[in-house]
Design brief:
single chain, alpha/beta, globular
């Protein structure tokens, strides 16, 4: 660990520093693994087990908190690329339910520290049942990286801030790379894979573009910080962003916040919406763009924050 990595520098907070490190941290996650010239991906930690993973009955992803949200964010893409059933589980709930685990399951344990107690207990539950256990961690030598059969280190660098930021985006990238490697032998997926790899190359630039909005986001935050509650809403790929955004608001501001799937708005959550309830909507120009706009027609919604990422085929 280098000294400058644990110094705050010119930033006011470690978390702010780590947010602005994301263009570099996602590159570090891909470095030595993604060859943009040949459009190929090599994950050395998985190469001896890829054939087993491709023959799996199902893929299970077990995590807590922010790491769980990274699995929700990538589930749809992993289902598309692997054409396998993909389950995402909160580690604590997984243990409460005593979920059946089979020898032809592949179970991923996602944790920034590699020491998350509930995730470790889930690993101890799955491993004796014969499943292939895969670790996705940010810490070399952690318990999860030692106890799993194989894995991927996300190489995001140290996170001093309690609320995870760059580890989330690096976990996302690592899981996308897992899906790309698993679909490498599928002829029908080659065009889709190449489009995703091309967009991975552009991703650091997109992140830098978003970070230039720092001043505008500060103004928005100042208009909301005295509210008593806040709803973050979206659907499709954006639902995980809503869950993660609501978690960050709770962690950092102690403000009640909920991430809601906008398709479920009419099935109960609409009762919370009135002229005093601020709502942030996360919308992209993707396959659910049109239906994502439907809640905006409700007169009670006060605010729409629309992130329109054009020409990003991965989303």
């Amino acid at each position: 660990m280098k000294l400058q990595e644990i110094m705050r520098g010119s930033y006011d907070y470690f978390m702010q520093k780590e947010i602005f490190e994301q263009p570099e941290s996602v590159v570090n996650t891909m470095r030595g693994r993604v060859n943009f010239d040949t459009e190929t991906i090599v994950l050395g930690g998985l190469k001896d087990h890829i054939s087993t993973m491709r023959r799996a009955r199902r893929l299970l992803f077990i995590a807590c908190g922010t790491s769980y949200h990274s699995t929700v964010a990538t589930r749809q893409l992993l289902e598309e690329l692997t054409e396998m059933p993909v389950m995402v589980e909160l580690a604590s709930d997984f243990l409460d339910r005593s979920v059946p685990i089979f020898r032809d399951d592949v179970v991923f344990f996602v944790s920034q520290s590699g020491e998350t107690a509930d995730t470790l207990n889930a690993l101890k539950y799955c491993k004796p049942r014969g499943a292939l256990c895969v670790g996705i961690t940010n810490t070399v030598g952690s318990s999860i990286s030692r106890e799993t059969h194989c894995g991927v280190h996300i190489n995001a660098g140290p996170e001093i801030g309690v609320a995870s930021t760059k580890a989330y985006t690096s976990q996302f990238i690592a899981l996308v790379m897992v899906g790309l490697v698993m679909s490498e032998d599928r002829i029908s997926m080659q065009a889709r894979r190449k489009a995703i790899i091309k967009d991975l190359q552009r991703l650091p630039g997109f992140i830098k573009e978003v970070l230039t909005l720092d001043g505008e986001i500060l103004k928005l935050a100042k208009s909301l910080y005295q509210e008593r509650s806040l709803i973050v809403m979206g659907r499709g790929y954006n639902f995980a962003t809503c869950l993660e955004g609501a978690l960050k608001i709770k962690e950092l501001t102690y403000l009640h916040s909920e991430g809601i799937l906008s398709g479920e708005l009419k099935h109960g959550p609409l009762a919370m919406i009135d002229t005093q309830m601020p709502v942030i909507m996360i919308i992209m120009k993707d396959g659910v763009y049109t239906v994502s706009l439907l809640p905006v027609s409700n007169d009670s919604i006060l605010m729409l924050v629309s992130f329109l990422l054009r020409n990003v085929s991965m989303l």
